[in-house]
Amino acid sequence: MTVTDKLAADHPAEVRTPAPRPGWRDRLARWDVKASPYLYVAPFFLVFGVVGLFPLLYTAYVSLFHWKAGDDNPDFIGLDNFKELFADAQFWHALENTVSIFLLSSIPQIIIAIGLAALLTTGIRGATGWRVGILLPYAASLVALGIIFANLFGPKYGLVNGLLQTIGLSPVDWQANRLASHVAIAIMVNWRWTGYNALIVLAAMQAIPRELHEAALIDGAGSVRRFRHITLPLLKPTLIFVTITSTIGGLQIFTEPKLFDAMPGSNNGGSTHQFQTVTLYLYQTAFENFDLGYASAIAWLLFLIIVVIALVNYLLTGRLARTPGRKK
Amino acid sequence: MTALGVAACGGGGSSSDVPAAAGPNEHVDLTLATFTEFGYEALIPEYERLHPNITITHRKTGQGGPYAQDMMTKLAAGSGLADVQAVEEGHLSDILDKSSKFNDLAKIGPADATADRWLPWKYDAGKDKDGKLIGYGTDIGPDAMCYRKDLFAAAGLPTDPEAVKSLFSSWDSYFQAGADYVAKTGGKAWFDSAAQNFNAMVNQLPVGYLDKSDKLTLDTNQGIKDAWAKVTGAVAKGESAKLTAFSNEWNSGFKQNAFATKVCPAWMLGVIKEQAGPENANKWAVTAAFPGGGGNWGGSYLTVPTQSKHPREAAELAAWLTAPEQQIKAFEAKGNFPSQVKALASPELLNSTDAYFGGAKVGELFAEQAKKVTQAQYKGPGDGQIQDTVASAALQAVEQGTSAADGWQQLVDGAKKLTR
Questions:
Q1: Average pLDDT of the residues in B286-308
Q2: Minimal CA separation from B58 to chain A, in Å
Q3: Which of A41, A102, B2, B51 is 20 to 30 A from A4, comparing alpha carbons?
Q4: Alpha-carbon Rg of chain A, whole angstroms?
């Protein structure tokens, strides 16, 4: 503003004009103030519109057609894809698998992450080394991990079954048995993500003021008591974050089950879809069977399910996060 | 653009909608897309030398699966395909279903690329329902039977390639020999996986999963039902090692002597060598016999999509790459088995031997097997997916303990869903 004012003053011609309405420079300056912020944030919204919103809406549009890849004239069928999807046993089966793998991975993952973080705050020697160490699995290539784990859990020549047999247990057909396959995939997920979550929890733990612990210590609280009554309540916002991110990630799980299949490149998720997740089913429908309309319907239903679960998650954890002291 | 005038004069007829050939001095850039190994590395510079106005960009992809996916996406998008696009036999049915997006090579191709160059079944499989030629055949995968000499000897079976032929004369004799083998060896497996045999059996039938009107035949196709009964019967007798083909466990199975016989298209010899390793050299053998006569598994085609701006030049390149002389060069480079009659009679091929398989004359052997194939089975849209994702999974389920009846139901339901 000041710059423009000064500029205007330097131009006597403009000053002399008897102008009840402000000059174009003034107007420009006012637009500048009003419009510029929108311009500055526009790139994000443009990019989001192109790569986020447009695909979302276009997917909704495609889901209304019987649309096979390469079709010249896809048939408009309204909501028939969704009707079929609600009656599709394979979809619900895949959803069960997804939820089962998600629960088997997220719950132990968060508990172990808190434990690891608690151990890492105790001032062990070479703390940085340990911290880097627990993050290493996260930095490794997911595809390589998938292949290694699929090898470990091989039904005949896998290392895990070899170990089970040496200690006198009977081998498990990790790919044929539904629950066993979920456990194996959950182990893969946990191995990768526990360290990552532990570091986030660790950062939150270190942000807890030392005075609280010192005061409790003077009052005679032991370490377990301090952990339960100081550390955990103050960790709640972080735990909510970790829970929600792992929920979203868990419902979209794809690479691990895809690579776990014995049949290379298969999207079946086992011979009878024992461990086919919703995303894997979506991928198979779209890019193996090229049934784009039906795949779009799956994508939208998955989107809605994730929104609902995230909301429930938010409400539940929000309620838990209210510390007892603050309750009136 | 000047080329359009030439088309109006020289062309005419039904092919007038295809852009005509460029003038001899006009520079043309062509792209060629292939996957895994086609053995074209030395051939491309040679072609460019012969045609100074043509530059070829070779896009090579590692695996066939992702390649096919990429191809279908680009086909759907309407752009991005190469001028000459290779298509694997297993994905050919999806392409034939969309033949309007490909040029008819019988019309735009060079005059000398005639049907009698190829084995008839290979040539016919490249045509769509209306007889439009979509692809020139490259390599083929004629079926023979591979077996373990040492395991045969231990079970008291003959080991000489001529003497074992009778075991592989029909699927009944093959599975019967398997049952005897299991009994004599105390439960050792006869073959690697049920799906491998089933695929070979279905491919031999006059009508496959879909008939020419693209309707599922599973309810009425006695051939498929019989094949299912035989294979699942053999699984019940313990003949299968239950190793899913190409999985890690299957690879280990070669080293662990997990099975005694293996359905063996020409290219499988390379796979066995790699997986069984030098320590098993001379233990494997191959014989010129296959249950139920001949069969083919694998091989590719070169197509020219209508997306190409230079279809005539592309067709000429495809015809040259698949001509007998070049097929022999590709065979010498990467072992791709030729599909052209002349190439199959060439001394280079007939005299080729394989030391790993006891010095067998493999060129002559597979040329003989290729001639035993009698017909090209019509493959409708989705045929490849039914075989790969539905039938193989259903048989895997049977190997894991599902009943044969439930497995069949899984196959029928899955195939219906795919072709809805």
A1: 95
A2: 25
A3: A41
A4: 28
